Amino acid sequence: MQSLILAQQGEGTDWFAEPWVRIVIILGAAVLVTLVSRLVVVRFRRKLEGTASVTQELNLQRATTLTGALSTGLVVVIWVLAILMALGELDQNIAPLLASAGVAGVALGFGAQSLVKDTLSGFFILLENQFGVGDNVDVQTPSGRVAGRVESLSLRITALRAFDGTLHFVPNGNILVASNRSKGWARAIVDVRAAYGEDVEHMRSILEELFTELEGDRTLSEWIHEAPNVLGVERMGQDALVLRVVADTRPSKVMDVERLLRERISRRLTEKGIKIPVIPVAATGPGPDGR
Length: 291
Fold this sequence. Notes:
The protein has 291 residues and is of the alpha+beta class. The protein folds into three domains: 10-111, Helix Hairpins (Orthogonal Bundle); 130-180, SH3 type barrels (Roll); 186-278, Alpha-Beta Plaits (2-Layer Sandwich). It is built from eight helices and eight strands, in the order H-H-H-H-H-E-E-E-E-E-E-H-H-E-E-H. A hairpin with a 2-residue loop joins strand 1 (136-141) and strand 2 (144-153). It is elongated and about 100 Å long.
């Protein structure tokens, strides 16, 4: 009886010792790890997508780009390791393969280091949600500053449409500093010039009265978070005092709010007989004809 049990154990040991059995186990483990990694990536994607909102489409695009790159990278690593282990079970000398892969990796690293840098930078821009399609951004690059609206964003490159219509293509690895003007809130700033003979407190009361009335403006109330506020005298110019008015706004409506405030302030000050000093022609610089 004991000899029969030992024989059965020996047969089992011999069966697991077969190379093809170990190769099947390795490939099966690779398939299992691949499935598990895909489940992890799917959960990661759902977390990135978040809840439904007005930016849901952009979140989906960002999540798709990130998870696609992550899933591809994991699959490549898993199956390269599995193939190398399978070749080792067939008594194949994988040292030359590893050496060749190392040399190829070094050559690729030197030849495509900018591509790798751009891809990694783009991955972290998307992962950290620094900016996205539709945002107004200023980016500082080794060649200078580039500003515009993000039209497209990939792992390698960011396309910015400038105000004059020029489309700039910026490699993500060249972005040193990115300033996003479309995140959270922005601030509209309007400087109001007042002659030295005007009563500053009187002007302040006029502006505050105007801003109280503007709270009932439906269009403006949708653009700003709080009513505009007079900070006070910002500076004393050569021919006028400068009062600064600020308002916290939606990022996409900063210029619209500034234009509207200038229009309403100018109209109200004219109605109240407040004189606004004219900027001397010499201070404005040369005109289009160079004079």
